[in-house]
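Listing S7. Sequence submitted for prediction.
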Amino acid sequence: MRRSYTFLLRPTARQAAALTACLEDHRQLYNAALEHHRTAYAKAGVSIRYGDQSADLKHIRSGDPGGQGRWSFSSQQATLRRLDKAFAAFFDRVKAGRTPGFPRFKGRGRFDTVTWPKDGDGCRWDSQPEHPTATLVRLQGVGHVRVHRHRPVKGRVKTISVKREGNRWYVILSCDDVPAQPLPATGAAAGIDLGVASLVTTSDDEHLANPRHLAATADRLADAQRDLARKKRGSQRRRKAVARVAALHAQVRRQRLDHAHKAALALVAAYDVIVHEDLRIANMTRSASGTIERPGRNVAAKSGLNRSILDAGWGVFLTILSYKAESAGRELIAVNPADTSRTCARCGHCAKENRLTQAAFRCTACGHAAHADVNAAVNILRAGLALREAAEAA
């Protein structure tokens, strides 16, 4: 199986400056390639392809040995492929009739990752294995950078990426052939209902808390954004204010990720089969503002709900749960969420009136009363087991 590892980099001041220059040169390469696309089509109606721009790299590097020529050729090809994927996604959206969203030029704050597609080609993980105390990664044009490796790396390192988050630098390894780590069978199965009050509610009436990390940081974040709004564009004070806002968002992101890992691990350790709703989170968090001609209703309430859903991090949690279940040899089943919260788990009666409040469920047909999320989790489990039995019978 494939797995990614993220480690904090500890570059020297000179290496940090080199990493910043590497990121900037790759950003300029991306923007120049995008301008090439735009100009060729506007002036001559010609579509530029990745192969054409990759062939031009040799001339670009030879003409700028102190700039573009310093960095790995393969990493620059990866940046051009990134633009090519952006155009491919644009045309897919056009064909599907969705809002296309033409690829945009990247500002300094919107280009934060450089990728080396192959370990050993312009980069080398664990470049000094004989070092007694430290792990280092070698990056062309930067040198041997110290890595805070807090856990072992398993499998074969395939690609290496460097990412900047605020004032921090991270190295991200994508590894193939990572061995699975199956857990002992428990013989238990559970349905899980994702929510805002509790991140996860199981069919066994267990509730995993939703810490609401963004809400807990809202006051500090509001102060930082208010301070940023007062700063003059281009000033040193504004740059510091931007870094402060970015650091707070990064802290919330790390806290959310850490909690998702712990919650997913607890479920994988306890159950052999886990059934969850096949949620379309992007659709659920779509704005309710509408248009000028047809304005939306309850926009403020919908905005608050969207913010709560995104703060809970359902998508992050389900992604982590998926790969942890695969590694542990557990079975993960996704079911249609329609009416799971309105259907009585005892008699099967489905009605909107069954759910009295966010937390209370009482069936209007048989009188069954339960926590609304537990009732939904039981329905989710039954639907998942039914799908499993149908698949086995087929």
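Caption to Listing S7: primary sequence and predicted structure tokens for the chain studied. Residues 160 and 173 are 5 Å apart (CA to CA). The domain at 189-212+247-393 is CATH 3.30.420 (Nucleotidyltransferase; domain 5).
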